[in-house]
Write a structure and sequence with these properties.
2 copies of one chain form a homodimer. Chain A has 230 residues and is α+β, with helices and mostly antiparallel strands. The first copy, chain A, has 2 domains: 2-146, Jelly Rolls; 149-228, Orthogonal Bundle (Arc Repressor Mutant, subunit A), CATH 1.10.10.10. The first copy, chain A, contains 7 helices and 10 strands. In chain A, strand 4 and strand 5 form a beta hairpin. Chain A binds chain B through residues 64, 66-67, 70, 72, 74, 85-86, 88-91, 95-96, 118-119, 122, 125-126, 128-137, 139-144, 146-149, 188, 229, and chain B through 64, 66-67, 70, 72, 74, 85-86, 88-91, 95-96, 118-119, 122, 125-126, 128-137, 139-144, 146-149, 188, 229. The structure holds a DNA duplex (30 and 30 nucleotides). Chains A, B: Residues 149-220 form the HTH crp-type domain.
Chain lengths: 230, 230
Amino acid sequence: MKQNKAGCDLKSCFLCQLCQPEWNPAIAAYRKTLSYKKGEVIFKEGDLVKGIFFVYNGIVKVHKQWGTEKELIIRFARQGDVFGHRGFGKETYYPISATALEPLTVCYIDIPFFLTTLKMNYDFIFKLMSFYAAELQESERNMRNLAHMPVKGRIVNALLRLQEKFGVTSEGFIGITLSRQDLASYAGTTYETVFRIINEFVEDNLIKLSGKDIGIVNMPKLEQLIEEQP
Amino acid sequence: MKQNKAGCDLKSCFLCQLCQPEWNPAIAAYRKTLSYKKGEVIFKEGDLVKGIFFVYNGIVKVHKQWGTEKELIIRFARQGDVFGHRGFGKETYYPISATALEPLTVCYIDIPFFLTTLKMNYDFIFKLMSFYAAELQESERNMRNLAHMPVKGRIVNALLRLQEKFGVTSEGFIGITLSRQDLASYAGTTYETVFRIINEFVEDNLIKLSGKDIGIVNMPKLEQLIEEQP
DNA sequence: CGCAATGTTGAACAAGGTCAACTGTGGTGG
DNA sequence: CCACCACAGTTGACCTTGTTCAACATTGCG
């Protein structure tokens, strides 16, 4: 498992408990700690944006619906990650939904106070901007992958991104337990296709399974699959 | 055709000629005007980031390669649009390429001066951040579309986005002339598929053609195609 | 005038999505 | 304690969509 981070994504944000553990009355009034149960929806597409969230504990999936049955998982957020920041700019409605995948504790800061903080702290807004820039790069890389990479490569890619973010347990499994459905939504494919390909990988000894958990066995071979032209 | 904008994407940027037409010696030293021919590459993936660009005139495509033969066009930039801003944050290499589609004149500002300006002007950095946020939303919407929307819908979507950005000529055609190849790359599909579907649309009287130019005839029917589940 | 690039069309093929049936598993109430 | 049900997981067969390949037409440009 990955070590806990020193602060949040926006180091020195001075807002969440991770960056500012000491009690600070000036901030405390605007900083709420909220808890959600596994599977609970924190907000959904179209909801009015009222604040921004920092994860203290647990895992959130940030996802976008397509009709009723299909979704694409844009990103997972774990301890120290920000989410809900997509509701900025002109739009005051969330363009995405957020759902707890594990029991979750977050720090919630309402927009007006957040904006005030941004205004007073150049370093902070610069970090936030850099964070957006990084997310944009990631998003556009994924766009290209969805457009041109065959499913097999997209699934490998999803696994590698998950391992990167959630690390590896002592037994060599990726540090997050996902339903196949969620893995499919993350890779931008279907349930059944994920199975077949996961199975194929197990047979080829590229990954190993333990219940729902997945462990990467042969990283180089997998990486090769990503590069592969159809 | 759309009217020219008052300033650039980042109104009040105080950098490009569009926002600051008067001669300003303090800025002039850092502001270069560059010209490119049709088809010329302004920068490509992996190039070192040295500056940021504002379009005075012409059209740029911002695209991402996949292997040698495939690309995905992320975005088009026209008068007043910024590009090259993806090279921010940790990465100092462009994650995308930029190519002129028409004879192009741009304003080029080198990074150190740009950063200095950002530092001195809260309003400016806030606008830049909002701009990133908006691009992120757009990018993630497109991600979902690429993952779940059938090709027909993606092509319609591409056409509507083009019309939104480049407006309509007096004869009712979208204000940009694209090769079928570029349209395909924008919609995330192939050449031949674009063709067949464009033909189908013409037969169904949803769009009209004049050479390579495309005009939207029946907007509601097209919009319906976007919503359509497979 | 000829060559290269771009456009046009048909046919074959394959990836992967859909559907349907079946299996295991855990929870619940009798 | 067991029978039942609901639901996630698993698998096979089929079929649609869209890509690929290949051949040919047209445009444009030196």
